Amino acid sequence: MKLVTYNVNGIKARLPRLIEYLTEQQPDVVCLQEIKCSDDTFPFGDIEGAGYGSVWHGQKGFNGVAVLAKAAMPVERQRGLTGEPEDEHSRYLECEIDGLVVASIYLPNGNPQPGPKFDYKLRWMERLAARAQVLLDDEVPTVLMGDYNVIPNDDDTFSVRAMAEDALMQPESRAAYRRLLAQGWTDALRTRQPKGGVWTFWDYQAGAWQRDAGFRIDHLLLSPQAADRLVDAGVDKDYRGREKASDHAPTWVRLT
């Protein structure tokens, strides 16, 4: 089965590209981020027409996550993370599909840093780690996938110098990501591309796509039970180059 994480950067603006991707690639599970729409305006009818059931956690104009399943309806398990009741951002949605647990994650960007937004990012990562440990303890196949807004390694960016001051590459961000992996999660794409140099995001500015000036911030983390089923992982890079595309490319893992 093919599981995909895809930051669509506005589902209304990107709906033709999303339906195109679903039709052409026929992935089994898709986790979306930055849908940027309220719950009552999510285009579930169009997605259903493409053959997918969907669950979503929207927020007007910002954030928002969703889980899609081919010819099935995802069963919602949890929306949002505990530990900060005043946090109303729509950034986490956890579902079950045929015995597989998946979570769609849109981690805070954290810029500018230092400052309140960066502090929020780090707190959110700790809350995610707490939930991730609970999921590991359940010992069921689980995939935590999404836009983590973390560049884990120097070879995950086109330019260390260009990103040096960015919240995505700060030592604190990287350390929080490493602590998550240390719980026992497998970074699927890194496992298949250990030498790095694989991008999942290219900014709209300064001809980043044309220059291939990207970086890797979309990750799929596998529990041991899911990692045992790992076949391959990659990026459907060509979709970034299509007309009115998202600035992220669909990033995927195949499991038996």
Describe the structure.
- The protein has 256 residues and is an alpha+beta fold.
- It has one domain: 4-Layer Sandwich (Deoxyribonuclease I, Chain A), CATH 3.60.10.
- The protein contains 8 helices and 14 strands.
- The chain has helices at residues 11-25, 44-49, 116-138, 160-163, 171-182, 188-192, 208-211, 224-227, and strands at 2-7, 29-33, 52-57, 65-70, 75-79, 92-97, 100-106, 142-147, 186-187, 201-202, 214-215, 218-222, 230-235, 251-255.
- It has a 6-stranded mixed sheet. A 6-stranded mixed sheet has the order 5-6-7-8-12-9. It has a two-stranded antiparallel sheet with strand order 10-11.
- Helix 3 runs parallel beside helix 5.
- It is globular and about 45 Å long.
- The mean pLDDT is 98.
- This is Exodeoxyribonuclease III.
- Its EC number is 3.1.11.2.
- The record marks 149 as: Transition state stabilizer.
- It comes from Sphingomonas liriopis.
Contiguous low-pLDDT stretches (5 residues minimum) are none
C-alpha end-to-end distance: 6 Å
Tell how many strands the DSSP assignment holds. 14
Average pLDDT over all residues: 98
| CATH classification, class level | Alpha Beta
Count every helix, treating DSSP H or I runs of 4 or more residues as helices.
8
Q: What is the helix content? A: 25-40%
Judging by the overall fold, what is the CATH architecture? Answer: 4-Layer Sandwich
CATH superfamily: Endonuclease/exonuclease/phosphatase
| Estimated structural class | alpha+beta
Which strand order spans the largest sheet, edge to edge or round the barrel? Answer: 3-4-2-1-14-13
Q: Using the coordinates shown, work out and report the CATH topology.
A: Deoxyribonuclease I, Chain A
> What is the makeup of the main sheet?
6 strands, mixed
β-strand percent reads 25-35%
Enzyme class: hydrolase
Organism: Sphingomonas liriopis
Site (Interaction with DNA substrate): 248
Site (Important for catalytic activity): 218
